[in-house]
Amino acid sequence: MTDAHVLKKRRIGIMGGTFDPIHFGHLVVAEEAYSALRLEEVFFVPTGSPPHKAKTRVSMPEDRYTMTLLATLDNPHFRLSRIEIDRGGSSHTVDTIREMHHWYPPASVEFFFITGMDAVLDILSWKEPFALSRICRIVAAGRPGYSTSALDDLPPEIREAIVPLEIPLLAISSTEIRERVATERSIRYLVPWPVEHFIHKKALYFRHGR
Ligand code: ATP
Ligand code: MG
Questions:
Q1: 118: Cβ below 6 Å to ligand 1?
Q2: β-pairing verdict for 78-80 and 109-116
Q3: Residue 141 lies inside a defined structural domain of this protein
Q4: Which residue, by CA, sits nearest to atom 13 of ligand 1?
Q5: How many angstroms separate the CA atoms of 63 and 183, rounded?
Q6: pTM for the complete prediction?
Q7: What rounded mean pLDDT belongs to the chain?
């Protein structure tokens, strides 16, 4: 075995999100990261309690988990993790990466935390952003309305950890989908059909008093 072979690290993607609900924007980002960065697999990690959404009403973790399962089931290199849901309390990416290092020791893995440009531009408000940028690469996927050049305003130590990712831009958000359901507009072709069926079956996002 050559030295290069021995030192080769596994490349694992982690796609965090509230996924309330998961939509094709999330899935395109994860699939593009998988192929462009030659990842071995991508873990979808639904948040337990998202700290930046404390004032917003968020669906039950088990419902968000189920929708993420339904959306990722047919992709052999997508995996799903309950790590943040089972930890309880606020979910912080730096804690999740540290916990994942129990299964993937740091010397053997390179983690790629996959986000959209809107989320990464907010990174200084995350828990321990400098420590985070030392333990993983941060993939910043394009999102309509957010420019890549704004990355240059981040501190250099953090900027160096960021990998910009070009994707087919999709102007889809979970907020828009929740509003569409509440006002009885179609969400077909914005979310995978099993997710659409689950939303209707559980009457998620419908306004009260219907
Ligand atoms: P909400 O409107 O409730 O904030 P969202 O659509 O932004 O929902 P999140 O669960 O907040 O979805 O996002 C999880 C991650 O996916 C974030 O890093 C976010 O930037 C990224 N993301 C979500 N939608 C897109 C999209 N259409 N294109 C690129 N990245 C996206
Ligand atoms: Mg969001």
A1: yes
A2: unpaired
A3: yes
A4: 17
A5: 21
A6: 0.95
A7: 94
How far, in Å, CA of 121 to CA of 142, rounded? 11
Domains contained in the chain, number: 1
198 located within any domain: no
d(CA 22, CA 69): 10
Q: With cut-offs at 50, 70 and 90, classify the pLDDT of residue 1.
A: low
Spell out where the chain has E strands: 10-17, 41-46, 78-80, 109-116, 137-141, 162-165
Q: Band the pLDDT of 53: cuts 50, 70, 90.
A: confident
Per-residue pLDDT reduced to its tens digit, 89-137: 889 999 999 999 999 999 999 999 999 999 999 999 999 999 999 999 9
More confident residue, 209 or 181: 181
Helix (H, G, I), strand (E, B) or coil at 56: coil
The ligand whose atoms approach the alpha carbon of 71 most closely is 1
Instruction: Please indicate, yes or no, if residue 42 is contained in any of the structural domains.
Output: yes
Q: Which atom of ligand 1 is nearest to the CA of 175?
A: 2
Q: What is the CA radius of gyration of the chain?
A: 17
101 lies in which domain range? Answer: 7-171
Does residue 101 lie in a domain region? yes
9 phi-psi bin (left φ>0, alpha ψ -120 to 50, beta other): beta
Tell me, using a 6 A CB cutoff, whether residue 187 lines ligand 1: no
pLDDT at 54 over 90: no
- The CATH number that applies at residue 167 is 3.40.50.620
Cα 59 to averaged position of ligand 2 atoms, centre (Å): 14
